[in-house]
Amino acid sequence: MIPNTESSQSVQAVLFDLDDTLFDHQHSTRCALRDMQLSFPQLAAIPLAELEHANRHLLDTFHAQVLRGELTLEAARLARFQHLLHRFDVPTTVASVADVASRYRAVYQAERRAVPGVLALLNALRPHVQLGIITNNLAQEQYEKLRICGLDTLFDCIIISAEVGMAKPDPAIFQLTLDRLSCASQHAVMVGDSWTADIVPAATLGLRTIWLNRYGMTCPAREVTTEITAFEPLEATLRLLLQP
Q1: Burial class of residue 53, CB neighbours in 10 A (0-12, 13-18, 19+)
Q2: What confidence tier does 127 reach under pLDDT thresholds 50, 70, 90?
Q3: 15 FRET partner, CA 20 to 30 A, in 46, 66, 89, 123?
């Protein structure tokens, strides 16, 4: 099931992104957006993919301000839903936006889960390599996701942008992780779902990369990475990660 010790010696560390690689952020988001559609007739006829795209754009915009210290997390959340509801012509008040934000957050948190196959994969990898996480966000948010998913004790190194003062796609945050694991780039593998934030900077540093493409996006450059659509079956993913 796992490559023999001699053949897997050159892989010393496997690094993972968190959101939509280990933690199923998109699942929680979709559940919360579907709940919103049930609450507003104006949203019921909007295709979920369109609503999701608008929400993702606003989340990226306002969350960047949170990471720069320009907005609190709560203020960014309220601004996001104010803009989202306005985008689809839903009348709002200060109270209704606050209610939407609160309900969305409650559904999102209730639906938190790991990406299928993650727990089995990490437990199978642990005897053979060091495990690390590189993620952009506030520390409390990310540690809570790990705890809820039962992943918080499985890693040798957890690097969160808000704690280290740098963020992906800056290659420096990848180098910091390698340094803390005392691992050279040629002996590490990076697994992530974001082409620009995970794959490109890791490849630039000389890491082998695995692009988790769960939603059928077009691969920009197949020569740069190895593409997978899921972590299952376990044996195939282990062979891929641990091969020299």
Answers
A1: exposed
A2: very high
A3: 66
